[in-house]
């Protein structure tokens, strides 16, 4: 799991620092900007100037120039150095005393201000004083269990607070009002302003050296038990998982996203993002590790080194090159805080795309798809891996530097056909998902053309769905590909989607005729008929009309009879032209005339007569064949009778002449009925056919929209036909009795009693007489009700008139006519119920004009 995150670069070697003085050792270091300060065990301070240089390998190197050397005059080690650049002061801890020195010349300040009794100290990097001209210093005092806080100015120091602890403190870090302390047996967080403390976890100073390091606002890094690097906030909680480092850690620092730790033999690098150890650098005799404004500096007793971080982008690329996708993505996400937003977004997208291709090459298609989507991959990068899928006209060029190392799919799969099939299936799935999204914006033609080629090559059922939907397939490339794979029906759909219907039909007709082979649709003939039915190019329809009719008269006629309803009447086919075309196809002709007469209800005599003649001819033809086609005869005869009965537009005499001399008695009766020769029609029904039920139906449908007298006339004629027979047989008598009893309301009882023979008994006609009496009484009572209502309405009008007479009407020369708005010149006038008055001649003319209405809508409009 190693990553080359840092390179160890030497900065100050033994010769520069001490020459041949073997007993001089480095005790502490401080770095502020380009200024590097080193404190030694002989009470000396060395000042060096660091100059950073970038090498061609993108690894920083440093040139070091010695500036000053200062011996403090003590024979004791310099324990701690801290620079306060805002004050131009260097705080030096030696012999338990913190001395303020000038950063540039290393001379003590003239006032001699200093802090005595300090074991160690640190600066508050999140100060609370708010004064920009001082720094806050926290010291562990030589006094037992005591911590002191000072304000250090340019030429003076001021104690602010003294805090006592329950145990002896050994290490401290400060953030605002919070102190993170390593006591004898535990770590604690102490708010020195309120005195409130929070225990963190136990730790024995006697067993190992404590580490307390401020790593960010209100967060600290601590050396915990069991070799754990623990993170803790000022609230006493940990928001990050711990890192597992050595049991003997000497120092630790943060260089995001890494935690760097130093022990006696190694420098270890752990990721804060996944807590894994990423790098190990051999480093013997190290005893100092600190970070200064992003620089991580380590030192032995004889030399100083800088851990130079490799660019995060290079680290990520190294991980991707090792196909460690998850680690690369974790590191890339963590790098967000160190890189400008726009640069990070561009970098992160590219990393996601590279990771996607790595997963793709490993056939991890779900993961690859998600990475491609998240990275907003130009889908043509993926298509370009597949030979010949991109259109020849495409101007696409692969990304540079490349996102992967593969020339094409053959190299990626190493010729493995099973893997190649899986890759093609993935691309089909991916393209079908993204073709209607923003991913395909700007190059939809490339996407749809590639998808069509994949579908055709793999004989995929979605090929037709793609072509019948809105698509951007390039005609030239796609047509050649479909023809190569013998997808001729699909090729026709492609022509149609490119408004080349003539080419599409020509291809489909060849398939139906067997000139070329394509079994995509077994019902291709029906499909062509449907296509022509909805085709708006009438010339094309006429071109193929003969072909479709020759193959099937019954289906072929649909190209004329099932046109879209939205087709404008003035754009529809001329019926005369269609009939002229269909004269050679009798079945189609009948169906087309049925469409005109029965569905479109065109009221033209020639169409109705033509259809009736065709029906009649077919009936006569079927009758001549005998019983073998009886069912067809019955069906056609029913159509003929229905047309003769319901249509009023055919030439009745013409049809009657054609029927005369045949045994089509029922049809004859219908025709006589159309001529109002009902006696002849009823004679046929009663005496020739003896179909009494049909005779009754005849009277009913012939009087459907007529008044009651006409209806009664027909039924009386039917009764007369039953009774006026030269030989009154029993069957006719019983039919007459049934007619009266079943339709009593259709007869005038008085007339019936005059017609029936005197020999008929009352019992025989009981049902008729009962119904007649009931009808008579009902009519009488309805008349009485109508009279009563009229009388009530008349009484209401009289009451209104009396009310109007109660109030006087005054006519003066100031009154104006309500109709013509002129004054009155004579005393004669008309008064309306609403009080308005009008000249008599104006009122008369208004009354004449209003006669177009039934009557006034309310009494107030009557005079």
UniProtKB/TrEMBL annotation:
**Molecular function per GO:** SMAD binding; transforming growth factor beta receptor binding
Matching Pfam families, A to Z? CNH (PF00780), Vps39_1 (PF10366), zf-Vps39_C (PF10367)
* Residue windows of the CHCR repeats: 563-727
> Where does the source fall among the domains of life?
Eukaryota
Task: Give the CNH domain ranges.
Answer: 23-296
* Alphabetized UniProt keyword annotations: Cytoplasm, Protein transport, Transport
- InterPro entries documented for this protein: Clathrin_H-chain/VPS_repeat, CNH_dom, Vam6/VPS39/TRAP1, VPS39/TGF_beta_rcpt-assoc_1, VPS39/TGFA1_Znf
A cellular-component GO term for this protein: early endosome
Q: Biological process GO terms, please?
A: autophagy; endosomal vesicle fusion; endosome to lysosome transport; intracellular protein transport; regulation of DNA-templated transcription; signal transduction
Q: Where is it located?
A: Cytoplasm
- What PANTHER family does the record point to? CNH DOMAIN CONTAINING, TRANSFORMING GROWTH FACTOR-BETA RECEPTOR-ASSOCIATED PROTEIN 1
Please state what the protein is called.
Transforming growth factor beta receptor associated protein 1
Its source organism is Anolis carolinensis (Green anole)
